[in-house]
């Protein structure tokens, strides 16, 4: 069987959740002997070489030496997406592809595909919290997602919560949906106590940590309000809040809140954090805090737990599935509840040590090897 894999999500050098999921699934599939009977081709768009094309090509050739790497350079993907209803030729034609199966990793499936189609839908945030999305992304999903799922022969999602919401909001049969949870690389994400990484960012212990895109859905304003409440109530002037992640949309309110509360000296913004620095940042934190309003899965808390970092997360969407009993669950709308949770973890050494032990055990339940095997088992359904 010939399989085509859409690699558009990994062509961005600053990958976020979808990009890392795609990257790790492909990487760990390459380590599985079951894929040797398949012929792979990797398809993507790189108009005028603006994406991370060369590095990705080298990686894929290393992982899949007998595969084909096909990049369409004649137009941006965004333009293609806008006109694919009106052009006469198929997706296959763009890449001269004759595969049996096409695997897409980012919600939307192009029109006019000859072959079986697998679509990956991570969450239904555009239905649950439409106000936390850009208008452009909302319109794109509102127009394309339902028919992409209808077009797909099978849908992959990443949690039980997301599966149920796909069923409820799109009317998709549960028989058509498979769950492939995210994983964590336990050889990379593990306790690492390197002060040079903290020195690089001028971070002094103790500190709370958040890693993720700066956007409304991540609920960072309430995190800042809770941190301010924690400082005022407990006279903990030596504690910092460290926030890492690239700017998404409507991030301005985050910085405005910091200024209004006069917390410029108490909160450190790192910007986008390279992956090689993550383990040390997680490992040395008092706690990793992820008060997101909604997640299809939630990779950052899993990475933090693998590093033995106590986590405080929202009690919403899929996050309780990921954290289990290894973290503290809070109502993301209740600033005082989050502030109190920060205080408990900060002051109670026994609680912190218990959560560290539980976190490592819980993280061990999720692996990219297992996720890749589940994808390959799905491929076998089409043989």
Structural commentary:
The chain has 383 residues and is α/β, with parallel strands linked by helices. Helices cover 42% and strands 15% of the residues. It has a seven-stranded parallel beta sheet with strand order 3-2-1-4-5-6-7, sandwiched between helices. It has a six-stranded parallel beta sheet with strand order 10-9-8-11-12-13, sandwiched between helices. The longest helix has 17 residues. The chain is globular and about 65 Å long.
Fold blueprint:
Elements: E1 2-6, H1 17-29, E2 39-45, H2 53-63, E3 68-72, H3 77-83, H4 91-95, E4 101-104, E5 116-120, H5 125-128, H6 135-151, E6 154-157, H7 160-170, E7 177-179, H8 195-200, E8 207-211, H9 220-234, E9 240-244, H10 252-260, E10 267-271, H11 278-284, E11 287-290, H12 299-306, E12 311-314, H13 319-323, E13 328-330, H14 335-347, H15 349-363, H16 368-380
Parallel strand pairs: 1-2, 1-4, 2-3, 4-5, 5-6, 6-7, 8-9, 8-11, 9-10, 11-12, 12-13
Helix pairs in contact: 1-16, 9-10, 9-14, 12-15
């Amino acid at each position: 069987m010939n399989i085509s894999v859409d690699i558009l999500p990994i062509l961005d050098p600053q990958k976020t959740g979808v990009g890392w999921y795609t990257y790790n699934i492909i990487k760990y599939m390459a380590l599985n002997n079951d894929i040797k009977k398949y012929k792979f081709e990797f398809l993507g768009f790189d108009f005028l070489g603006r994406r991370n094309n060369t590095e990705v090509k080298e990686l894929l050739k290393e992982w899949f030496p007998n595969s084909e790497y096909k990049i369409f350079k004649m137009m941006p993907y965004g333009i293609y997406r806008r006109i694919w209803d009106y052009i006469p030729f198929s997706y296959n034609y763009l890449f001269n592809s004759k595969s049996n199966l096409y695997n897409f990793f980012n919600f939307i499936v192009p029109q006019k595909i000859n072959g079986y189609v697998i679509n990956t839908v991570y969450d239904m945030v555009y239905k649950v919290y439409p106000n936390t999305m850009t208008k452009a992304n909302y319109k794109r999903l509102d127009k394309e997602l339902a028919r992409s799922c209808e077009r797909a022969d099978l849908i992959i999602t990443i949690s039980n919560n997301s599966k149920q919401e796909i069923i409820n909001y799109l009317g998709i049969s549960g028989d058509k949906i498979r769950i492939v949870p995210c994983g964590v690389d336990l050889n990379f994400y593990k306790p690492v106590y390197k002060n040079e990484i903290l020195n690089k960012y001028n971070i002094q212990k103790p500190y709370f940590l958040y890693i993720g895109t700066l956007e409304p859905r991540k609920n960072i304003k309430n995190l800042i309000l809770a941190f301010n409440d924690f400082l005022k109530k407990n006279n903990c002037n030596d504690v910092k809040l460290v926030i890492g992640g690239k700017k998404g949309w409507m991030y301005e309110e985050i910085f405005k809140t910091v200024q209004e509360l006069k917390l410029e000296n108490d909160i450190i913004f790192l910007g986008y954090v390279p992956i090689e620095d993550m383990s040390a940042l997680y490992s040395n934190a008092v706690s990793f805090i992820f008060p997101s309003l909604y997640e299809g899965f939630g990779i950052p808390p899993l990475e933090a737990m693998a590093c033995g970092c106590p986590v405080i997360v929202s009690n919403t969407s899929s996050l309780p599935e990921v954290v289990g009993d290894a973290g503290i669950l809070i109502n993301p709308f209740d600033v005082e509840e989050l502030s109190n949770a920060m205080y408990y973890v900060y002051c109670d050494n026994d609680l912190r040590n218990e959560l560290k032990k539980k976190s490592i055990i819980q993280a061990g339940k999720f692996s990219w090897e297992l996720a890749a095997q589940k994808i390959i088992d799905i491929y076998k359904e089409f043989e």
